[in-house]
Amino acid sequence: MSTTTELAELQELIFNLRRCVTSLRSRFGESPAMRRIALDAERIFDDVELLNSDANDLDLSRCAQQHTGEKIPVPDTQYDSNFWRDVDDEGVGGHSRQR
């Protein structure tokens, strides 16, 4: 499915969401929960409009990754010790720093 088709489908779904929110608002009034739902629906609408604008500006179809299937060899030899200078192990943090 193309990005354009997906965005069009999403916009249609959001239109239906906004219609449902309007219907619910007439039924439940302006309660805090209803206001949050209405604001969330509008935020989603605005975000999709921004995404659509970005997709048009960036022409996302040309940015799609194309995998060549080419394998990149990684040598089994040891790395130079200077490669790891000033690097901490993930999750350990700062174990080699002077205090």
Task: Give structural notes.
- This protein starts with a helix and ends in a 36-residue tail after the last helix.
- The protein has a domain of 28 residues.
- It has 99 residues and is mainly α.
- Helix 1 packs antiparallel against helix 2.
- Helix content is 58%, strand content 0%.
- It contains 3 helices and no strands.
- It is elongated, with a radius of gyration of 25 Å.
Topology record:
Layout (H helix, E strand, L loop, with lengths): L2 H26 L3 H27 L1 H4 L36
Helix pairs in contact: 1-2
Which descriptors would you attach to this protein?
99 residues; mainly alpha; 3 helices
Q: What is the H-and-E element order?
A: HHH
Strand tally = 0
Task: Report low-confidence residues grouped into runs of 5 or more.
Answer: none
Distance between the termini: 56 Å
State which percent range the strand residues make up: under 5%
Count of DSSP H/I helices: 3
Compute the average pLDDT. Answer: 80
Largest sheet: none
Residue share in helix = 55-70%
Classify the secondary structure makeup into a structural class: mainly alpha
Shape: elongated
What is the CA-atom radius of gyration, in angstroms?
25 Å
Offer a concise description of the structure.
The protein contains three helices and no strands.
